[in-house]
Amino acid sequence: MYSVEMEENCSVITTLDEDDAYEDVKVTIANDGTVYMQQFNEGISREDIIYMSYNQLKDILNAIHSPEGCYYVIEKVTL
Predict the structure, then answer these.
(1) Rounded CA separation 18/24 (Å)
(2) Which pLDDT value is given to residue 34?
(3) Which one of 43, 47, 51, 53 has the lowest number of neighbouring Cβ atoms within 10 Å?
(4) Would the pLDDT of 76 be above 90?
(5) pTM, entire model
(6) Taking every pair of C-alpha atoms in the chain, what is the biggest distance, in angstroms?
(7) 34-41 and 10-15: which strand pairing?
């Protein structure tokens, strides 16, 4: 299950593990292209945060459907 919220300066996606084995993951995509991934870490009683660019997030999404190898993504320009 996931939710999508649109805020003034970002979009927030929250995914919940339906089996309740993992903590929720929140992905915030800021208007400046910065992506933040957050998940609560019980071991340290605080959230772990990963910062990346929007292009890195797109690479991760593309990699899910790719066979083993190294890739460089080139975006098509459509008119």
Answers:
(1) 10
(2) 95
(3) 43
(4) no
(5) 0.82
(6) 50
(7) unpaired
Q: What is the pLDDT of residues 21-48, one digit of tens each?
A: 999 999 999 999 999 999 999 999 999 9
State what percent of residues in the chain have pLDDT above 90: 85
Q: How many residues does the chain have?
A: 79
String of DSSP letters for the chain: -EEEEE-SSEEEEEE--TTSSS--EEEEEETTSEEEEEEEETTTTEEEEEEEEHHHHHHHHHHTT--SS-----PPP--
The two three-digit tokens of residue 59, written as one number = 């690479």
Q: CA-to-CA distance for 4 and 19, rounded, in angstroms?
A: 20
Q: Which two tokens stand for residue 50?
A: 């990963």
